[in-house]
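Narrative progress, year one. The postdoctoral researcher (J.K.) led the effort to move from monomer predictions toward full complexes, under supervision of the PI. The following entry was the first complex the group processed end to end, covering 516 residues in total.
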Amino acid sequence: MELFSPDFGLIFWMFLTVLLLVVLLGKFAWPFIVKTLEERADLIDKGVEYAQDAKEQLENAQKEAAKYVTEAQKQQAEILREAAKMKTQIIEEAKEAAAVEAKKVMDAAKLSIEQARKESEMQFRSEVSQFALQIAEKVVRKDLADDKSQAELVDKLLNEVETKN
Amino acid sequence: MKKVLSILLTLMMALSVAPFAAQASDHSSGVEDPKGIIFEHLGDTYGWAAPFSHSTYIPLPIIVRDCNGDWHVFSSARVEHGATYDGFKISSEGEYKGKLVGTDANGAEYRPLDISITKNVAALFISALVVVLCVMSIYRWYKKNPLKAPRKGTAFLELIVEFVYSSVVRPTLGKNAKKFGPYLLTVFFLILIMNLLGLIVIFPGGANLTGNIAVTLVLALFTFFITNVFGTKHYWKEVFWPDVPLWLKFPLPIMPMIELFGLFTKPAALTIRLFANMMGGHIIVLVLTLLIFIFGAFGAAAMGVTTVVSVAFSLFMLLLDTLVSFIQAFVFTMLSALFISMAQEGHGEEI
């Protein structure tokens, strides 16, 4: 039967055609196509890798940023706390200083008041003594209008001095 | 989808029943020689039946060398319908039925050396041309834009190339993929295109190429030669001095005989597998179609029923054959790659 007995003509042409096809395509087309395919596959692989890397880096960066933000927040809180502390301290110190100053002022005032008092006292005293002396002078002048009484007084005074000694 | 399919089926039924019902009344017997018709379709002819006609043939060149060593080239139209030209005619019976025969000086018939461009050879050329066009379309695309994925048809072709190359050639052959890839890809595309063109009923297709043992034999021989020509020392040692107990190979070379036999069973298996698969598909479709005419003898009702069933089954078979076309091309490529890679074994160990 024809189907099972290969025909020479067909074998001949088939051989020629396949040989020609394999040589032509194998020399000019397939290596180029396969090379391009692989290059493109590599490119895509690289692209995917790059994208993954970029994604990872982005995630890292985001993490880093978040870290920085939390750190900054922590620092801010710290600074705020510090500031608050410092504020109270400053206020305290200011209060203390004010108190000290006030005390000083008060003391000075007290001192000056005392001084003034003493001065006025002294003045008063001297004035009083002056007044007393004037009064006494006036009194004495009136009493010692005559010599007798002057002598008497001198006597009396001398007596007094003598008894005192 | 279902609706479209049912409409298509009804249309096909109507189309096929109407003319043949009229015909059936002319020839009450249906077909006289179903076997002859089937083998005529499966076999080779010198002219190519024009679409939708069984009497007109597209003439093809006949190239023969007669018994005196002279070459004759003439159109197949000259020997159509039993005509004799230049002492050659197409034998209608006997050993060379359907083949061109010459008459020698004694008046005896003989078979000249025949390398005519028959229907199969023409179909082979068309297939090869389609393969070249397909490959060129990918090639051109890559030349134009090397790093861009192709679009539309080229993308589909590239998908096939990529599929064959990265799922068969590279995993099987490893670093030899670049060396044998071109052959395997060419063979894959050629078989695929030949299979698919064979499924098309009219002119550019319709030749039962891969269902012809000559075609599959040549393909298998190519694989055979590539396997053995590029075979490594290790491979040949495995054939003639395999790693088995001595008594299996020394006084009586049992294992070497088996191995040597195995060398030839591989291409034989390749030949028969592709041939039988594709021929089987063609035969089933042909038989299903012929059933319509055979049952036509029993009247219009039987014919109608058979038509519906046959057309449905033919459609199914053709769809299946489309799948088989791909699978067989793939299997041939895969087995070729496997055989070649087996002969490349030990290539790495030598270095």
